[in-house]
Specification:
alpha+beta, Methylamine Dehydrogenase, Chain H, 2 domains, four-stranded antiparallel β-sheet, globular, WD40_rpt, WD repeat, WD40/YVTN_repeat-like_dom_sf, WD40_repeat_dom_sf, repeat
Length: 401
């Protein structure tokens, strides 16, 4: 038996005798590697027809809220695998983030999507009423929604337009102004891809950007109105992993620890980092997921080609971009061709399955075209063209306005 298990059994025994605080036992063992490595898949919830981009618990930990490429919101009980509510949202693009508003008995939801539209949904109201409660203020993708603890009236959002916006539902439940600047709290001048608030001090707001930086703001020093210079006002610290200081590596997710002393940050095509924003102005890494030192590679950034359903930079076989760079351009090109080949194979399999279902049920719809994005552009790919032209795929690209 391992030393960790020996200590655990002894500590559990001491807890039963009243010699060990239950909370201390939980803190000391919850994050142990020996326990994490023994985690196994508990259950799978097949509640969506597309990629699931967001999941969040309610405050009591009883229910899960999820959003997907199928543009639907689902509230389910993961313990008995039952779907409580399926909501046909007004979204017309992939849902990227959805949260319960606090203190609303899990009846009110805020969600955002790839076309920048934010919806306020009250599950006790009809669909037509909910579709009128939309905010079209962001231009470009809206990446994340963040609620404020114990505040059922306000929420924050961030997006590709570089803005962090603060909405107050007591003032308005919809906004369709063109080029709206009413609710801008921060203008980062870079795409703001993730946000989180500090649990013990919700006025501290951490923002992850596409320039590899994480910025922490004090919302008490900010306000919505004149948005000029909002990228600097109220900023407490700004930190970047040293090897990413001259690169544009998107922050895909970040969150505070429960005590607010640490910030955990995940980067696209890179590692996960733990920062301590209170030490040395957050200039140094407190912990990285690797001890290997890597030299900066001064190369122009390559455009990321992402096919629909392609998560090669975040899946189990993904590698940090810095490692891929060391392998040279040949590996990059080979990886691209492999991804294209894998996706084409998957498309053929899906087309075959749909054709078989269509023969069994002639009234069903036809197989939809596939899309992928290149830096915000949308390209429609025809499988037949890909086969006919082995030297390259002819496609039509429409840039995002």
């Amino acid at each position: 038996m391992s030393r960790c298990c020996d200590n655990l059994l002894w500590d559990v025994r001491k807890r039963t005798l009243g010699l060990y605080e239950p909370a201390a036992l939980r803190v000391n063992y919850l994050g142990r590697r020996e326990f994490i490595q023994r985690l196994k898949l508990e259950t799978t919830l097949n509640v969506h027809d597309g990629c699931v981009n967001t999941i969040s618990w309610n405050n009591t930990g009883e229910y899960l809220l999820s959003g997907s490429d199928d543009t639907s919101l689902v509230i389910c009980n993961p313990f008995n695998k039952k779907v409580l509510t399926r909501i046909r949202s007004g979204h017309r693009a992939n849902i990227f983030s959805a949260k319960f508003l606090p203190l609303t008995n899990d009846k009110q939801i805020i969600s955002c999507s790839g076309d920048g539209v934010i919806y306020y949904t009250n599950i006790e109201k009809d669909a037509e009423t909910n579709r009128q409660c939309q905010f079209t203020c962001h231009y470009g993708t809206a990446y994340e929604i963040m609620t404020v603890p114990n505040d059922p009236y306000t929420f924050l959002s961030c997006g590709e337009d570089g803005t962090v916006r603060w909405f107050d539902m007591r003032r308005k439940t919809s906004c369709t102004k063109e080029d709206c600047k009413d609710d801008i709290l921060i203008h980062c001048r870079r795409a703001a891809t993730s946000i989180t608030v500090c649990p013990p001090a919700p006025y501290y707001l951490a923002v992850g950007c596409s320039d590899s930086s994480v910025r922490i703001y004090d919302r008490r020093m900010l306000g919505t109105g004149n948005y000029a210079n909002r990228g600097i006002m109220g900023m407490c610290v700004r930190f970047v992993p040293p090897h990413l200081s001259n690169k544009s590596c998107r922050v895909t997710s970040l969150c505070y620890s429960d005590d607010g002393d640490e910030v955990l940050v995940s980067y696209s095509s890179d590692y996960i980092y733990l920062f301590d924003p209170k030490v040395d102005q957050a200039k140094e890494l407190k912990f990285t997921s690797t001890n290997q030192k890597r030299e900066e590679v001064q190369q122009p950034p390559l455009k990321r080609l992402r096919l629909r359903g392609d998560w090669s930079d975040t899946g189990p076989r993904s590698r940090p971009e810095s490692e891929r760079e060391r392998d040279g351009d040949q590996v990059t090109n080979a990886s691209l061709m492999q991804r294209m080949s894998d996706m084409l194979s998957r498309w053929f399999e899906e087309a075959s399955e749909v054709a078989q279902r269509g023969r069994r049920n002639p009234n069903r719809g036809t197989f939809p075209p596939h899309h992928y994005n290149i830096d915000g552009g949308v390209t429609t790919v025809c499988i037949a063209d890909s086969i006919a032209n082995t030297q390259g795929t002819e496609a039509r690209t429409g840039a995002r306005s």
